[in-house]
Structures are given as C-alpha cells and as structure tokens.
Request: fold
Amino acid sequence: MHRDRFAEAPIRAKLNGAVGNFNAHIVAYPEVDWEEACGSVLSALGVELNPYSTQIEPHDFIAEMFDALARHNTVVIDYDRDMWGYISLGYFKQKAVAGEIGSSTMPHKINPIDFENSEGNLGVANAIFSHLSAKLPISRFQRDLSDSTVLRSLGVGMGHTVIALQSNIKALGRLDVNQERLDQDLDLNWEVLAEPIQTVMRRYDVPEPYEKLKELTRGKRVDKVGMQEFVQSLEVPDHVKQTLMQLTPHNYTGLAAELTRRV
Reply:
C-alpha cells in the first residue's frame, strides 16, 4: 500500500514565471493561454504543471512521496527485526557462506548481518526523509532558497533505501525453515485453540465460554489430551465436537496461506 502511494504521487514542476503568476508571459504574449501551453510542455516531459507556486515549486509532492516511502521503510524495519528474532528463536536457519566470519571470537556463529544492515540503512533513510518532508514545504515569505542545499540529499535517502532492500533480499536467500523447531513450538502450545473453541461455544450458547477457557488455559500449559477432553465435555452437537477435535496448533491457520499469496 505505501509502495503504491509512493509510485502514484504526481511529480510536479514550475513553469509559470518568476513568482508563479505568468506575469511577464502575459505582458509579452497576452493572446497565449499560458497555463495550457506550459502544461502541455511539462506533460510531454512526463510531469505535471503545478499551477500554484511562488518563486520555487513548493515541493509538497516530494514530501508526499517521502512520507509514503518512510512508512514503507518502517514496515520493512519491523520485518527485519521480527526475522532477526525468529532466527534467534531457531524458527529459521541461516546457510553458512564459505570463508565468512560471523564473530571474531565465536567461530560457530552465523549472524543475521544482512537483516541488521537492512534495518540500519532504513533508519538512516527515514531520518533523511523525515527532514526532507518537514523542511521542503516551508519557505520564508515564499522566497527562501534553503531548499537548494537540502534537495542535494534526495539521492542519499533513496540510496540507503535501495541498499537496505538489496540486503533484505540477500538475507532471505540465506534462510531455511527449521520445521523441527516450529513443530516443537506448536506442539507445546495447544492453548492457542482457546480462541476458536470459545467462539464456537458462544455460537451454541454455552454459558461463560471465556471464563471456562480462562480457567483451563491462563498461565498453564495445556496439551493435546487436556484440550480434547475439554472439547468432549462441551454441550454442543456431535458434528461440532468432531470439527473441534480435528483442530491442532498446526492447522489452525485460517486464510493465512491465501492472504499471503496475494501480497
């Protein structure tokens, strides 16, 4: 979504005279429709005429673009940190690269360096984008030219973003799913099924569904036997019990796979 907002932001340009009113144009050639003429020239160049400007193009579109890109980058930072955590938990394994040194003192380590590089570069990029978005639309008395030095940083923020995304893609290519570790974690957490079970209990007017599941699961580990014994005790139709008995932490995924394929 944020990527689309960035791509859809119109690029605008100034071609309307010194102070933005076509003053000299109209004096020299009063018969010309200057808005249409200048708009056509800029349209041929792939940009839009900003009909409302001062001595400079006010840069609102740049702020719009970089605000959207910063939000996109923030999502990726969140992703980088989550992946770093999943690697630490053992949900993913990193492929060893011949000749690579993960630590100067611990030769066994494979650090998630590419996710860390991605996070760091995106942080720098967002700091630049934040300043650009806040600074560029401001111009003292509509004639301040402090934007000229700030505009030189446009490519810096974009460069850090590109480096970060490249690091992220590289990091993904080094991952393998640790299915054994995932299965182990799922098998230890049958209490996640408290959500669908209490929802079904509400559908069939079973009294105090939340309270009963809270008593069963809060602060406790509930295994397969304990959860299925609870299901068997419910006063719901047999076919509903059968459906609940087939639920496991492994298959309780809703539309996750389908939604993921749409991204």
About this structure: The beta strands are 12-13, 48-49, 92-94, 175-177. The chain has a mean pLDDT of 91.
